[in-house]
Amino acid sequence: MKKNTRIIYCCQECGHQSPKWMGRCPECGAWDTLVEEKPPASDRHGKNDPSPHTAPVSIDSVTLDAEYRVLTGMQEFDRVLGGGIIDGSLVLIGGDPGIGKSTLILQVLNGLAQGPRSVLYISGEESVRQLKMRSQRLNTAASNMLVASEINIEIILSTVDSVKPDVLVIDSIQTMFSPDVASAPGSVSQVREATMKLMAMAKQSGVPVFLIGHVTKEGAIAGPRLMEHMVDTVLYFEGDQNHVFRILRAVKNRFGSTNEIGVFEMKEAGLAEVPNPSAVFLAERAENAAGSVVTACMEGSRPILVELQALISSAGFGTPRRTVLGLDHNRVSLLVAVMEKKLGLNMAGHDIFMNVAGGVKVSEPAVDLGIAAAVASSFLDRAIPDKMMLLGEVGLAGEVRGISRLEPRISEIRKMGFTRCIVPKSSLKAVAKMDGIELIGINRLGEMMDLLF
Fold this sequence. Notes:
Layout: E1 8-11, E2 17-18, E3 34-37, E4 69-70, H1 75-81, E5 85-86, E6 90-95, H2 101-113, E7 119-123, H3 128-138, E8 145-149, H4 153-163, E9 167-171, H5 188-205, E10 209-213, H6 226-230, E11 233-238, E12 245-253, E13 261-267, E14 270-273, H7 277-281, E15 292-299, E16 302-314, E17 322-325, H8 329-342, E18 350-356, H9 368-380, E19 388-390, E20 393-394, E21 400-401, H10 406-415, E22 420-424, H11 425-428, E23 438-442, H12 445-452
Parallel strand pairs: 6-10, 6-11, 7-8, 7-9, 9-10, 17-18, 19-22, 22-23
Antiparallel strand pairs: 1-2, 1-3, 4-5, 11-12, 12-13, 13-14, 15-16, 16-18, 20-21
Helix pairs in contact: 8-9
């Protein structure tokens, strides 16, 4: 009688394993995500030869070479990576379908292939003819760019060993499979196994590897969270398909800052870099419009000027609506409550709509004063004075609190032609006086109302 093969049920969202099927994963709470899988065969008695052990060494005896980064030719992409590509790094790029992940990576590879470097693009979703058609449309058909259509990870590793490329791209990691794992491509076991083998290859050979990953409905990269822990860098390509702007954001980066972003504009010939996002986001701003305020937010080391728009209208019936796009909904509700309590503005029977122009998402509290000014401007139907900027965090008692990185914000504000700026008085002490712009310090929310209205 044959011995029964052990079966496990693995959650496709978080990787939790269970000996029996359940409708809901006890780890992440997702429904109908447990799939039957067979664990890899192993010798219970330990007869298989283990991998050789590495003897520990003193950290003082470890020698470091000078950090060498390879520039891709796209300054926005290099900025997000921390200054360029590190040899042996494993980079995961995620984003919504159709957002431009493959377009971005093809343009990056084209920049790398212009020199003596060779790049290898492995696609598990497209044929080489499809890659050629897209490459012609983007004008990225470089002679040093090698392409192949393959999903077997063992064949891919053999190809890498024979071709010896300088950069490897896998599109996408969810289509890869290993014959050693008895489960379908895209399952947790297959994604984990393929990522592990690619990581080992990258660290041993020094070849940087880019993995393109699908995104779930919740916006997270499909597959186990373990995959994000295994790679060196996780990049998210964000943007609305109805807008032409795309933002590349680093969520994890072992070789640089996670606060940097890269801004791109989608055109017919591919993605174009946006070196001055502030000028682009403010290009179509209406003059002397009630409810429109410009403020400055920090994205890594880069200050970006954005336009906040508010519309306050009487609620026709039922419960007043609160619709917020690009800002934290709870933060806007909190500021509206502070304004009603401390300023006496009765907005309980009004609909409130807020938007960040250009499809940008702003989350830092330094834009609180701008949100309050936009709401008050629309409620009173009075425009903010021209060339006026507002910066500051607002507390529950109506106080205006200090913010960080005020000096680079002021420099960007002055460069864009603004002449007056309302800032927290506590932060004003740390900023040197600048010609061409007047800084007005305030302590309370009521002082802002007296200055503007």
